[in-house]
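#random but structural
TW: two for the price of one
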Amino acid sequence: MQLGTRWPLGADPPSGLPEVVVIALQAVEGDLAALPDDTSAWRWTLTWLEGNPVIELDDGTVIRFDPKEDSATITQPAIVVEDDEDWI
């Protein structure tokens, strides 16, 4: 049984994560560093689903590992854009 954990944005991730997941974490954190938003209180949450890491950031960004492809998928939350004009 593997236990999950939480850690602050920008801190070292837990050991034992696949390298491709760590690279995905670094990519997300690099993108967030360029934003003007205050992310100092944001944290990552690691859970293990059927032995594979699933990592979620407080803003809703999720990173999932696919062991068959040795790949990580980043899913970011949708951003709603207010539009003054209704086009139908």
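TW: number two ↓
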Amino acid sequence: MSKILNDLVNLWVPRRCFGCNAHLYRGERYLCAFCRHEMPLTEYNFGKENDIDRKLYGRCRFEKAVSLLYFERTGLAQTLIHALKYRRIEPIGKFLGTWMGASLVQDPELPKIDWVIPVPLHPVKQRKRGYNQCALFGKTLAGILQANWGENYLLRKGTGRSQTKENRGLRARNAQAAFQGENLDQLGNKSVLLVDDVITTGATLEACCLALSETSGKPPRIYIATMAAVL
């Protein structure tokens, strides 16, 4: 019955591909099969060094980092993530989390993850948007990896203004003061997957890793997964 109702809804309000605007058929979500095949996958894994690792080396304590997609200006990844962030299409987070989770569970180099923790939004920005764009992505990964979901270990301070037009040095200084950890002793010696939407300069993830490592006991082992990366 649900499939029949879904087909009737698509007949009157047809779903369209974010990439080419083609009609989406049963089983397709947000992207048609052709556009999904054209998405710029990084194919990074937790076994081999990649450009994100090199971007963060020497800046913070972390084990390994991966991204699902390359973020290209005016590209398909940008279209999809901008729809998630600015058009309030929150389920795209689950779509990308399911996609990435399917590869992570097959990665023999990724250890058992105890906690999945999102990069937090500033409360003002989250109230305005209505949700953290990383949340559903991270919750989906937590479910697939059979890990705990922890959104209360990192807090965001500061003004909450966008840093997309600021240079790397200014981003880094702002980010250092923007995050603080809470109840970090509960994460001691645990494996943590820190998730974010897009890594650009790495300043935000650097600051989050530093905040998560400020514990009186043994710090968590931090792994990083993002939807996309600007390289």
